Q: What sequence folds into this?
């Protein structure tokens, strides 16, 4: 066989393998993508239905539990901080975790379970290309899911309005002192303002990158366990066990000062997207 045809066959098989991985993950990608975009937009819409300042007395009752929050409770009373809390919502985390664990665990043990790995390896394609093709699809679509999160936040910010109470005031100067005291001179009015005037979507680029890094780690962890075991259900079980253990370690690190050292033993201490956004 001519050398040109020998080089053409592996490239053709790689394209077919790439198409196979794309088609296998298409439904899950669409479901997660639609859910993430819709949820982020709906989360901002719900936030805009309330005047957050009125929740200040309620949050004071939870001051003792502030150590479990990644940001000061006062930051939650701002629209910027409240939107940043979207990255810690269970629905968003669940979609990313489902994508990463389901696709990462499929790379080896999934193919063995379906009986297709032997057929794939019998073709003139290297194991490295087999793994890299699967990784390229999973990582690129993880990046697209994170992009959809940002797009949902962007659309939510630019399509919603918030209520704002405006009270006419004049500044009254105190004689002999360089002090001005605001004095209301009329009735308060409630007006609607665009949320985009108060919050910039660019603030959430760094949290989205942090979300991608979190998903990339889970994807890599799932792929590692998939290479260790021939049964996919056991690979998924191992990953979930590590995930739950790391989550417990994170909660333990925030519980008391004596157990703060546990933050060095969990990857959740590196996932702080709402803490990145400074108000």
A:
């Amino acid at each position: 066989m001519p050398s040109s045809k020998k080089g053409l066959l592996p490239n053709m098989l790689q394209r077919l393998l790439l198409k196979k991985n794309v088609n296998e993950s298409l439904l899950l990608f669409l479901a997660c993508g639609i859910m993430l975009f819709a949820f982020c937009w709906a989360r901002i819409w719900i936030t805009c239905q309330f005047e957050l300042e009125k929740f200040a007395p309620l949050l004071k009752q939870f001051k003792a539990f502030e150590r479990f929050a990644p940001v000061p409770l006062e930051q939650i009373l701002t629209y910027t901080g409240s939107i940043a809390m979207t990255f810690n919502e269970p629905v968003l985390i669940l979609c990313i975790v489902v994508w990463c664990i389901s696709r990462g665990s499929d790379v080896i043990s999934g193919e063995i379970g379906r009986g297709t790995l032997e057929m794939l390896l019998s073709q003139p394609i290297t194991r490295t290309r087999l793994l890299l093709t699967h990784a390229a699809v999973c990582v690129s679509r993880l990046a697209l899911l994170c992009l959809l999160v940002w797009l949902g936040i962007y659309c939510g910010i630019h399509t919603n309005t918030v209520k704002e109470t405006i009270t006419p005031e004049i500044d009254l100067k105190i004689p002999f002192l360089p002090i001005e005291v605001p004095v209301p001179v009329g009735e308060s009015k409630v007006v609607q303002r665009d949320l985009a005037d108060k919050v910039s979507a660019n603030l959430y680029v760094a949290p989205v990158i942090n979300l991608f890094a979190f998903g990339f780690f889970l994807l890599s962890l799932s792929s590692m366990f998939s290479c260790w075991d021939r049964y996919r259900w056991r690979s998924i079980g191992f990953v979930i066990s590590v995930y739950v253990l790391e989550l417990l370690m994170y909660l333990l690190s925030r519980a008391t000062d004596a157990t703060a050292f546990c933050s060095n033993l969990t990857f959740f201490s590196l996932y702080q997207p709402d803490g990145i956004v400074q108000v």
Q: What stands out?
A: The chain has a mean pLDDT of 82. Residues 127-159 form the longest helix (33 residues).
